[in-house]
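Fold sample X.
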Amino acid sequence: MALFNQHVKAKKFLGQHFLKDLQIAKDIADALSIDPPQRKIIEVGPGMGVLTQYLIEKPFDLKVVELDRDSVAYLKEHFPALEGRIIEGDFLKLPLNELLDEHGGVIGNFPYNISSQILFHCLDYKEHVLEIVGMFQKEVAERIAAPHGKKDYGIISVLLQTYYKTEYLFTVHEHVFNPPPKVKSAVVRLTRKEDVQLPVDYSFFRNVVKTAFNQRRKTLRNALKPILMGVSLDHPFMDLRAEQLSVDDFAQLALFIHDQQK
């Protein structure tokens, strides 16, 4: 514990916040399914192994990805079970198709400054990421799980909910971290839906969604102008704003635009 505290004090200068409530760490680990057994799991940013200690007890084929050299050294010293399972590098640059199969999972107390990027990276490999469990800044967690019609509903809501069932599991308060952050956190679980068939290519769909929300206060008739060249505006959705459309509505809209551009 003395070494742990010494490491925490050193890392405070880097602006990191360490989870000290072990029950919450266990709850996060338990939120990840173990079906099927021996599934491949990647933990992002294990730090000093607060979450890792519960993951290594489960029947997972676990690998951890850590960019910080000091944390890697700490993990190697204090978690001999991770021998050969530590990937020292940037998760956002990893080819997840080479590390996971179709039953793979990603878990972590995600660094808040790149948490959205982590999710978009998982989306790029959605065929291999069956499940995601993570701790996020509370506002980001609320956006992930927000239904259409709510102010928190946005690009990340639509793209994730297209392929994943999203669940806001529980809120995590500031006092369980050392040092306490200025924001609350929350844990979210995403479980991949079966047999999702978009009527258009994912990259086209993603472009429609991003363009629609880039000027979210405008009606889609105006917000989508950058991609509506030569497209008929005679569609009932055009007089709505992006936040009013469900995931299925966006799929229909993307198909309409795609067909009009042929």
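Fold sample Y, listed below.
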Amino acid sequence: MNAAAELFAAEGYASVSMRKIAKRIGYTPMSIYLHFKDKADLLDCICEQAFADLYRRHERVDAAISDPRERLKAGMRTFIDFALQNPSYYRATFIRKGEAMPRRDRIRARTAALKRQQVAAFLDPSASEDEVEVATQVVMVAENGVATMLTANPKRWVEPTKLIAAVTETVAKGLRG
């Protein structure tokens, strides 16, 4: 799965064949089919694994940090750190458009619900469902923006820790403004 994620991220899903993946890992294409129905099934498993890892990381943040503001910022850092530590998985999972993938979609929905809970806990208790949804999307856009920019061209930006701190603080201030 690591080799497939790297190839999908580097060359694009459409350009990668099961044969190319097999060649990269020194297996026959048929040996991959013993584990995955097809290329879409393989990508679904990659995405499921990535979201499961991200979900566990968010659970740890929720368990460790009680202050809603700090939990929101830590949740954003958690997402960005995941992308920086796993750039191939991040690109294959979050950048690629495509059809529904059942395993990925189940864990993605659970992960998004955790993010929404972090945002809702941060906002004023009188915030409407629409306000919570918009704020959640703002957080997701900000963390994906930083993750994408830092994984695509890390030398272009200021030191990552400074940038991440500035973005998380700015988003937290803006959501309360």
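Sample Y note: The mean pLDDT is 91.
Also: The domain at 40-176 is CATH 1.10.357.10 (Tetracycline Repressor; domain 2).
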